[in-house]
Design goal:
Oligomer: single chain
Largest sheet: 6 strands, mixed
Strand content: 35-45%
CATH class: Alpha Beta
Order of helices and strands: HHEEHEEEE
Low-confidence stretches: none
Mean pLDDT: 95
CATH architecture: Roll
Distance between the termini: 28 Å
Length: 148
């Protein structure tokens, strides 16, 4: 790997770790710090798609207060594919903690994040978080799956 790619991967890894830390702390500004104005988000919660940093912020501001205390977030299998102007990461993430209603979810989700270099800076332009579902006709979310 050449030094430019190593620098880009180090920067993308830092952005990702900052994002994880901000999510754990329910820090809206920390999450938004590296979001592009035109971010497109396909999250596990409705709606199907959210476009733009204003909507992304509103989604976070609605979701964070549903947690009682910090959000537990474990990242596994984080990998990057990096080009000159675009990059993406893939990972498995376990989301857990205590909700205000007493529920204690603990589920693994698949995360893909798209980055674009804008004015020399890597920003998140796309975030896709998904939960698999059983294709047995029940269409139930497969929240009991574990990574290998």
């Amino acid at each position: 790997m050449n030094s430019k790619r190593q620098e880009d991967e180090a920067e993308l890894r830092r952005i990702t770790l900052d994002w994880v830390s901000a999510l754990k702390a329910k820090d809206v500004e920390g999450v938004m710090k590296n979001a592009a104005p035109e971010i497109l988000s396909f999250d596990v919660a409705p709606p199907l798609a959210s476009r733009g940093s204003d909507q992304y912020r509103r989604n976070l501001e609605a979701w964070f207060p549903t947690w009682d205390g910090p959000i537990a977030l474990e990242e596994r299998s984080l990998e990057f594919t990096i080009g000159d102007e675009v990059a993406f990461s893939t990972s498995l993430s376990r989301i857990g903690g205590r909700k205000k209603d007493g529920e204690q979810p603990g589920l693994w989700v698949r995360v893909t994040v798209g980055f674009k270099k804008i004015e020399g800076r890597w920003l998140v332009v796309h975030e896709h978080v998904s939960t698999p579902f059983y294709m047995d006709g029940s269409f139930k979310a497969a929240v009991d799956l574990q990574p290998d």
